[in-house]
Amino acid sequence: MKTLLPKKFLVIIAFLFFSSLIFTKGETHMTSKTTGVRHARGTGMWFPADPVELKSLVRGCIGDANRLPAISNRIIGAIAPHAGLIYSGRVAGAAFRAIKDNSADPKNKPETVVIIGFPHKYPLNGIAILDGTAIATPLGTTPLDEEGANIMIKESRLIHFDTEPHAREHSAENEVPFVQMALPDAKIILVLMGDHEEETINAMVSSLKVLSAKKTITVIASTDLLHDPDYDKVTVTDKKTLEIISKLDDKKLMEQWTPYNQVCCGIAPVLTIIRYAKEMGCKKGDVLMYRNSGDDFPESRGRWVVGYGAVVFHE
Description:
Blueprint: H1 7-24, E1 37-39, H2 51-63, E2 75-80, H3 85-102, E3 112-117, E4 127-129, E5 134-137, E6 140-143, H4 146-153, E7 159-161, H5 176-182, E8 187-193, H6 198-214, E9 217-222, E10 227-228, H7 231-246, H8 250-256, H9 267-279, E11 285-292, H10 293-296, E12 305-314
Parallel strand pairs: 1-5, 2-9, 3-8, 3-9, 4-7
Antiparallel strand pairs: 2-12, 4-8, 5-6, 10-12, 11-12
Helix pairs in contact: 2-3, 2-5, 4-6, 6-9
């Protein structure tokens, strides 16, 4: 004879079962759980897999950049592009050359570099920090600043550890080889921002301010500029965008940006670095270099041209 459970117990069992599915799905959490090394997904795609080739290429991008007049005040952040190294490496190198030179003064040398990217294709709620102990490229393995990441996470419910978005995205990790060459002793925090809503930007800026009060940090906002077949349009638009950024005019920048006219593909990181720079007492951004893919690869004109800019912000 079968024993039938009362209906109310069946309901409770069903609830507990489906709740376990909901709350155990994914890797989003508020404290670090992963102890592994993350291997950069861009290896062999966005940058060379051969360590000798990659080292030579990144060193050349940084070393060939024009040496700027010495900036005595500490560089607190920069904007750098994240395209394939052969396309945007020279421009990224200009930003990291300035940071490297500035860090020759021990008081300017960052303990941690916070790299802020965004997901190109996949939806993301809030702000995802890469979990784990280190990130590896062909240049070697760099520790992730777990302590710093936890400081940021405590500042907002929007910020959490989540490895999954990083597994499919290159915008933040493509800056890592430059950090490894320019600042070999620095730890890294890799961040992806899912949107540029006011609450999200405020949460990110607030967490950076709290972190900067406890550690010496440099913030890298990862973005390319306009994408369009028209070379002249890209050139004119990008120079206007860089002028707006140099004036720290985040409101004007948002007036220029639309989903169909993305003057910065990484609008969230750029808005964050502008507002953070202002909070830290920065008065302007210094545009170090601009190029687009049509400059170095003329065959891309009329097909698909992408702009790249390097900007630094100092106290």
